[in-house]
Amino acid sequence: MEYPQPYTLAATAPTVPPHPMLVAVVGQQYCCPHPVDLAIVRMVLTLADKFTVTDINSNVVFKLGVSLLTLHDHRVLLDVAQNPVVTLRRKIMTMHDRWQAFRGDSSDPKDLIFSLKRSSLIQLVRTELDVFLASNTSEQVCDFKIKGSWLGRSCVVYAGESNTIVAQMHEKHTFQSIAFGKTNFMVTVHPNVDYAFIVALIVILDEINQDGRYKKTHHHQQNLPTEFPT
């Protein structure tokens, strides 16, 4: 499988201090020696939400493969050549919104890359998620942590329980986004950090947010609990 070369992505202004080590989760080919800005464009007025990732020159880097049949339980991140990079699956009937990421289009446990879950059951305003690499089977300490306000599009990805930032996102409003029903936001990926991994995290964040809205509305109408037992 051929992958786009990292240097095809435009560099942002070098205002972010480089990460001291290479963070290659999906693949080293997605690590750049400079900060990378990615724009996330999500069409929200369609039957199946369209999720596209571009660089700062509007070149498509990734797209999200979606299916109305799988609802929000199965997503595939595709590269510019439509090759599957990561398959994202939500584990049903869990209390912590656990998701798993697999290499390519696989769902085999041997191809597991990482898993993600909410740090706590009740999160009213701020989002906090724990990310565990496949090798971290004990899950005593997370490998990455996501904190922030998803509604405000101001989430930050940290290395483990440290204060070391590996990526951060912020919302970007444009006239076109308002007029055409798009949700736009930018993600700055720090040097030597796997940008395919960061995009996969953002896809899951978006799905958790959308699923949370649906469950709150749907179960409130039917007076049912919003969570299920493990």
Write out the CATH superfamily name of the domain at 26-59 and 115-218.
LURP1-related
For the record, the CATH class of the domain at 26-59 and 115-218 is Mainly Beta
The portion of residues forming beta strands comes to: 25-35%
What Rg do the Cα atoms give? Answer: 17 Å
Distance between the amino and carboxyl termini: 38 Å
Got a strand count? 12
Give a short account of the largest sheet: 12 strands, antiparallel, barrel
Strand order of the largest sheet: 1-2-3-4-5-6-7-8-9-10-11-12
How many helices does DSSP assign? 2
CATH topology of the domain at 26-59 and 115-218: Porin
* Strand and helix order: EEEEEEEEEEEHEH
Q: Based on the structure given, which CATH architecture of the domain at 26-59 and 115-218 is correct?
A: Beta Barrel
Mean of pLDDT: 76
Structural classification = alpha+beta
Low-confidence stretches: 1-8, 10-19, 174-181, 213-230
Shape: globular
- Helical amount among residues, as a percent range? 10-25%
Pfam families: LOR
InterPro entries: LOR (IPR007612), LOR_sf (IPR038595), Tubby-like_C (IPR025659)
Family: Belongs to the LOR family.
Describe this structure in words.
The N and C termini lie far apart (38 Å). The chain has a twelve-stranded antiparallel barrel with strand order 1-2-3-4-5-6-7-8-9-10-11-12. The chain has a domain at 26-59 and 115-218: Porin. It has two helices and twelve strands; from the N terminus they run βββββββββββαβα. With 230 residues, it is of the alpha+beta class.
